[in-house]
Amino acid sequence: MNFLTLAGLSAVLHGYVALRLIPDLAAFASARLWLAAVLLASMLLIPLGLMARRIARVPLADRLGWAGLLCMGLFSTLMVLTLVRDATLGLLWAVGFLTPGGLELAPWRTFSAQAVPLLGGLSALLGLLNARRTAAVVRVDVPIPGLPLAWQGFTVAQISDIHVGPTIRQRYVRRIVERVNTLQADLVAITGDLVDGRVVELAAQVAPLADLRSRHGTFFVTGNHEYYSGAPAWIDELRRLGMTVLLNEHVVIPAVDAADASGGADRPLVLAGVTDFNAGYFDPSHRSDPVRALAGAPADAVRVLLAHQPRSAAAAAEAGFDLQLSGHTHGGQFYPWNLFVRLQQPFTAGLHRWGTLWVYTSRGTGYWGPPNRFGSPSEITCVRLVAA
């Protein structure tokens, strides 16, 4: 989409909100001016922010990006609340029309016109604070039937969907690394959508990930945003940082190396990883394939799959995996978009069952686009294997 098209769309949407709210604030002159000013600024800054890398150089591009994405988060909420307001006023009009004596709509129009920007601003502020804080640790026990004693308590620190880019930079990434390292996990898994930009732009911002520490190392699978950002170059860069990138392949972790327990020492753990569910559209050789990821693996192994999108679950279950760790959804990131995730993905967040397969879907460790997490906090997940 070019700048003029984006600017035109922004003008139409902002105009709709302005026409629906400002006339009903006639009794509040200062509120009308403030709302008009905010909408005008947002109308201009959103397209400028989204196109910042094309029309400006760093650091101006980063500042425009920040401003535009902040406005996008606020306006998105204002737009939804305005639509809800219009639907509610329509319902009240119908009730008034059918009720003897009618229902006076004017007070409702005035009250709701005040409520929409107040609620929108409050949710955007809370969402910003939640988005910018370091993700909290979420601990999840996954019961695996027949889990050998050697693997009891084996831990995976999962981070996902950091989206290093215009508003997520080195300092943010370093705070994540420091928190992950406190977990002293057996291994670290990064389940895709690490970046929003090219290696030449973001290599220094991602560099702190080289300091991730765990017993068996850090493993990475591609998400859809890696393919938007030049996946081959990022794969090389992450390998340079010391990560193991799993492209429809696996590694075998011997049980004797995983624990001091003696039981089940002949049954290893297989950690496999697939490319993003849609990777084949970008590179046919990267078509996601859980069966191929297990090729040559020990038949009796405990099988864990890293797959960016939860909808890899059907193929993962058929391939015989015990557990799939995914991300992609952000848990919806902020209300009300969390209500629509199930239109595309089988799971929004948390631990769920797909036949005999456990699927854990992370809400993500960063955020995409607007720095807004309202109703869906970010997370660093500490997954622990336990016997069923």
What does this molecule look like?
By secondary structure, this protein is α/β, with parallel strands linked by helices. It has 2 domains: 3-132, no CATH class; 136-387, Metallo-dependent phosphatases (Purple Acid Phosphatase, chain A, domain 2, 4-Layer Sandwich). The protein has 12 helices and 12 strands. The strands form 2 sheets. The protein has a 6-stranded mixed sheet, covered by helices on one side. A 6-stranded mixed sheet has the order 6-7-8-9-11-10. A hairpin with a 2-residue loop joins strand 10 (350-354) and strand 11.
What brief labels describe this structure?
alpha/beta; Purple Acid Phosphatase, chain A, domain 2; 6-stranded mixed beta sheet; 12 helices
Number of helices: 12
Order of helices and strands: HHHHHEEHEHEHHEEHEHEHEEEE
CATH architecture of the largest domain: 4-Layer Sandwich
Radius of gyration: 24 Å
Query: How many domains comprise the coordinates?
Result: 2
Briefly note the structural class of the backbone: alpha/beta
Q: Report the uncertain regions.
A: 257-264
Q: Superfamily at the CATH H level of the largest domain?
A: Metallo-dependent phosphatases
CATH class of the largest domain: Alpha Beta
Topology (elements, then pairings):
Elements: H1 3-21, H2 29-50, H3 52-55, H4 60-98, H5 106-132, E1 136-144, E2 155-159, H6 170-181, E3 187-190, H7 199-206, E4 218-220, H8 224-228, H9 231-240, E5 244-245, E6 249-253, H10 255-258, E7 269-273, H11 290-293, E8 302-306, H12 313-319, E9 323-326, E10 350-354, E11 357-361, E12 379-387
Parallel strand pairs: 1-12, 2-3, 3-4, 4-5, 7-8, 8-9, 9-11
Antiparallel strand pairs: 2-12, 6-7, 10-11
Helix pairs in contact: 1-2, 1-4, 2-4, 4-5
